[in-house]
Amino acid sequence: MKKHLQVVGAMLVNKEGRILSTLRPLGKKLGNYWEFPGGKVEPGETKEEAVVREILEELDCHIEVEKEVGENTLDYGDVIITLTVFQCRMKDEVTVKEHDAFVWIKPENLLSLVWAPVDIPILEKIVEEKKGE
């Protein structure tokens, strides 16, 4: 039976309206792909609790979850991943600790990066919604 991982990501938006994108380390699975910062939901944790914990661990940043922006499930062959992305408000600045790079990018340019495949349908939804604003 395949392992099924529940993963969360944070859509963090700065004062200029740019969205934080982080680059997975080369040595990790899906290394050198861009992603929303976040990680696995631990047993006994809600998705919202997980995203708050993960962002504190990865970015040394306290956040407040505002709303869910999308969810997608993808079978990677060896594992099935369900990603839930939340729009979150930053309470302080981010310090990238676990990624190889990061960029604050305009919503209309999000799809110019090479993203982890599970993120792409959520990104397409975000880009489409931002066009209508």
From TrEMBL:
What name does the UniProt record give this protein? Answer: 8-oxo-dGTP diphosphatase
Q: What is its EC number?
A: 3.6.1.55
Catalysed reaction(s) here are: 8-oxo-dGTP + H2O = 8-oxo-dGMP + diphosphate + H(+)
Q: Which family does it belong to?
A: Belongs to the Nudix hydrolase family.
Molecular function (Gene Ontology), one example? 8-oxo-7,8-dihydrodeoxyguanosine triphosphate pyrophosphatase activity
Residue ranges of every copy of the Nudix hydrolase domain listed in the record: 3-127
**Top-level taxon of the source organism:** Bacteria
Classification via PROSITE patterns = NUDIX (PS51462)
Cross-referenced CDD domains: NUDIX_MutT_NudA_like
Q: What class of enzyme is it?
A: hydrolase
GO BP, one annotated term? DNA repair
Q: Which cofactor does it need?
A: Mg(2+)
Q: Does the keyword Transcription regulation apply?
A: no
Q: Which UniProt keywords apply?
A: DNA damage, DNA repair, DNA replication, Hydrolase, Magnesium, Metal-binding, Mutator protein
